[in-house]
Amino acid sequence: DGGITQSPKYLFRKEGQNVTLSCEQNLNHDAMYWYRQDPGQGLRLIYYSQIVNDFQKGDIAEGYSVSREKKESFPLTVTSAQKNPTAFYLCASSASRTGATGELFFGEGSRLTVL
Amino acid sequence: AQRVTQPEKLLSVFKGAPVELKCNYSYSGSPELFWYVQYSRQRLQLLLRHISRESIKGFTADLNKGETSFHLKKPFAQEEDSAMYYCALNKSGGATNKLIFGTGTLLAVQP
């Protein structure tokens, strides 16, 4: 089954702990993205990567970190510095890093709850 | 600043009634606009893009630069249209799909 796989679907953590969310894609896409979805706020871009070993901050990168060591993988770490980490996190990918088409392919999401 | 505004959190209509989901944007350049949809228990997915000028599942959307709007319309709503709809903006000529999303409108089609 091709697409974007996010894990885990649900995650509970204590305040002050770092958490890493996994995102894997087998679509051979160059670009990958992390969005945060909060009620009433839509989707906000955290980080994105256009190519392996390169990534850029999005609109709300503070308190988050990413890596892109492999084309297929783009994990997101929610650090203890993130003031309000409880949210629904969506990973996405797109085919071309040159020439935007606007089509993102999304995962099913990971819901993080910090207790 | 670039922004996408969807003024309605919830739109409830009866089956067979016309639907219009509103989207306004602010962007100084020439924008590319999209509608994404998320059905219950499914992933967020692209519905249509303004460049294609296409009709998908009976939905159309016209870019109105004068009113900076990209409203999504369907003449006769069906129950299976019930979903969350997001309007999104991308910078024209950009090298990546760095989309800005609106806050979304939940469409509920009543039988």
Question: Would you write up a description of this structure?
Answer:
The complex is a heterodimer of chains A (115) and B (111). Chain A has 115 residues and is mainly β. Helix content of chain A is 0%, strand content 50%. Chain A has no helices and eleven strands. In chain A, the strands form two sheets. In chain A, strands 2, 4, 5, 6, 9, 10 and 11 form a seven-stranded mixed sheet that branches. Chain A is globular and about 40 Å long. Chain A starts with a strand and ends with a strand. Helix content of chain B is 0%, strand content 44%. Chain B has 111 residues and is mainly β. In chain B, strands 2, 5, 6, 9, 10 and 11 form a six-stranded mixed sheet that branches. A three-stranded antiparallel sheet of chain B has the order 3-8-7, with no helix packed on it. In chain B, strands 1-4 form a two-stranded antiparallel sheet. Chain B contains no helices and eleven strands. Chain A binds chain B through residues 4, 31, 33, 35, 40-45, 48, 50, 58, 90, 94, 97-108, and chain B through 4, 6, 9, 32, 34, 36, 43-46, 49, 86, 88, 90-91, 94-104.
In brief:
The complex is a heterodimer of chains A (115) and B (111). With 115 residues, chain A is an all-beta fold.
The radius of gyration of chain B is: 14 Å
The main pleated sheet of chain A reads as: 7 strands, mixed
The main sheet of chain B comes to: 6 strands, mixed
Quaternary structure: heterodimer
Order of helices and strands of chain A: EEEEEEEEEEE
With helices defined by DSSP (H or I, 4 residues minimum), what is the helix count of chain A? 0
Shape assignment of chain A: globular
